[in-house]
């Protein structure tokens, strides 16, 4: 397809597939639903789908592909999950062994791909409503257990944002409208209630002291299934690399609740 | 438990289990989420869960039980799906062979139970908003195909209501807030667009002529998986009998979007 005739989502995927975009997908193709990716062998696919069903705030499933298929026909016809994410993480026996820019060489006919709604999707709606999304934001492990299914278990991973009370109210309203992208906050206030690990965020330095007047607000995070793969020592799980998501053709405003 | 200490949901299930309530569950334990039930053998469970994921308006899954388990620990601890619905329908090779008031004698360790949100749940919210729910309402087969998964395929079954334009707007607003109970309408206006069968509703006589000033409004219906079992000639599927649902401990207002 001629680049001039592409939608912003198709253009972003094309830039990723041709290696012109290799970084995080935050800010790309605004208005389109972004997804986290989980790929597992067929033998674990039912247990994982039940795990997602039992933990829908962390793992809202947008599409399940047939075994061996890599084209998400429903959410991005023509795309290919083996090429169209800028970076992948490979977990073997629960250990992240490598990162890849493509996974064609790892493909097996028994692999089942899951696309899981990402919170990046509602960042634009938050910004439009006056809630900043780029600063005062951390991804934290917690001690709150997820509901297990088959071998999958582990603690919830959350996104914490520091917001003013007015922003916290608006952010609750706005994010509630996106149940397929983690939806409403799962907690507000004291991080100790969740056992959130402020000393070792998944990315970056420890969380500094909370400035007066701000409230920590917590959302379930799409990194949760990766933590479950680690805890459960799943033999093989391929995922997006954090912040390097898959851009679908779905419009965020079409999936959201009015 | 002493009946006087039961919640309305527990009291309703107790009345059903002890045979004091044997009819439809519409109007029982108002405010609690009601569910449709699908029970299948483990070998088909993954395909069915993917079918639900691909058709979330018709089949919003609220709980998946472990194989052989009959207690829905997450949505109704202490309940038992073998006894706590007033009537069950048994499908063998796609044919509805019998109805039962209990299914203990049919139980197998390989059976997996799925609880699927029912539209009965938001009837109370519609009534509160001035939208009548008991009259001018039909369950219809359509010619709109569902998205298949494994052996599961077939056409969508819908609930059609005749509403005034003002009621149609309010009903869209209210039902949108209940995505786990079929959510927003899937269509408004001409039934031919869906290929809705007005001559043979699933229950009752043919649909009469539309009175002037009313709009047909259509929601995806929880009978859809039963139609898929028929079309796909699934070897064994146990379901609730239509309108005879399972009452959970979940509060409808807690599951809804504000």
How would you explain this protein's 3D organization?
2 copies of one chain form a homodimer. Chain A is α+β, with helices and mostly antiparallel strands and about 260 residues long. Chain A has 2 domains: about 5-120 and about 230-255, 3-Layer(aba) Sandwich (PSTPO5379-like), CATH 3.40.1640.10; about 120-225, PSTPO5379-like domain (PSTPO5379-like fold), CATH 3.30.2040.10. The first copy, chain A, has 6 helices and 11 strands. Chain A has helices at about 10-15, 40-55, 120-130, 165-175, 225-230, 250-255; strands spanning about 30-40, 60-65, 90, 95-100, 110-115, 135-145, 155-165, 185-190, 215-220, 235-240, 245-250. In chain A, the strands form 2 sheets. In chain A, strands 1, 2, 3, 4, 5, 10 and 11 form a 7-stranded antiparallel sheet that branches. In chain A, strand 3 and strand 4 (about 95-100) form a beta hairpin. Chain A is globular, with a radius of gyration of 18 Å.
